[in-house]
Amino acid sequence: MSRTPDILITALAPAIWGSTYLVTTEFLPEGYPITLAVLRALPAGLLLLAVTRCLPSRDWLIRVFMLGALNFAVFWTLLFVAAYHLPGGVAATVTSVQALMVIGMARGWLGTSVRAASVVAAITGITGVGLLLLGPGAALDPVGIAAALGAAAAMAAGTVLSRKWQPPVPALSFAAWQLTAGGLILLPLSLLAEPALPPLTMTNLGGLLWLGLIGAAATYWIWFRGVARIEPGAVSMLGMMSPVTAVILGWVWLGQALSLLQILGAIIVLGSVWVSQAASRPCGLRMPSWFTRYRASA
To answer: What are the residue boundaries of the EamA domain, all occurrences included (predicted)?
Structure first.
């Protein structure tokens, strides 16, 4: 059965995540990153729990909170730290190494074979993201680099373990569990580390609704669906769609200039994503009917 529909559906999630920077900077109050992360994750998780009416069993609680921490609490917190210490392009380029991390973790935790084409595609994709986002004055701050690498490792581990620990429930319920757990972990941190939010405007509420309903509830549902169906290294490469979308939105919405080097970077990223999907196809593909008939008559 063709994997193309699953790949295209899953790619929608990181493509939509690429709008996060635009929505955060243009629609949300500045200076409340952890609080906004809570408002993105927890309401979305509770909404999905209300829809699915499915709670994790006691045996699954530890694993759900571990996944919620890796995929949301740790990942988003370290990503915010990286954003405060690095230009956005540098942070995004460093975190894109998660594609390589997933290949290594999948080998150790799932026994997945390491394909040379997948490794080359990941390295090429990281190069493309660098061309797409890095400017000549990109600064390298050690704290920011460490935070970005930590964020990449958290997301990579969360992706592989989400594949390893597949509960007997639909992807929508799995997403609900993890979003709720991640939001609950972030909630006390936001109360301790940040002041109360100012009164929210209609613009702020619209941004939160987008990030919560679309950027969290809908996208993580289809992301975890894809994690369950697509080889981990291939699904992690789809995450590189996010910076491509971010640059395109900056060009279309904010009128930011788009250089030939950035266009080349976007082409390289898209090409590496395509190669990674082709490299991860199972070896036992069904041969065309004309070839089968030929072999039978030979």
So the answer is: 7-133, 144-275
Instruction: Name the nearest CA neighbour of 106 among 156, 69, 55, 174.
Output: 156
Quick one: DSSP state of residue 140? -
Query: Distance from CA of residue 237 to its chain's centroid?
Result: 9
Say how far apart CA 83 and CA 157 lie, in whole Å. Answer: 21
Structure-derived torsion over alpha carbons of residues 124, 127, 131, 136, reported in degrees to the nearest 10: -160
CA 249 to CA 22: how far, in whole Å? 8
Phi, psi angle pair for 194, to nearest 5°: -130, 150
What pLDDT shows up at residue 2? 62
The residue ranges of every structural domain in the chain are 4-283
User: Helices (DSSP H) in 28-141: which residue ranges?
Assistant: 33-52, 61-68, 75-85, 88-95, 98-110, 116-133
pTM: 0.88
Question: Which range among 51-60, 79-88, 219-228 shows the weakest confidence by mean pLDDT?
Answer: 79-88
Q: Are 97 and 156 in contact (CB under 8 A)?
A: no
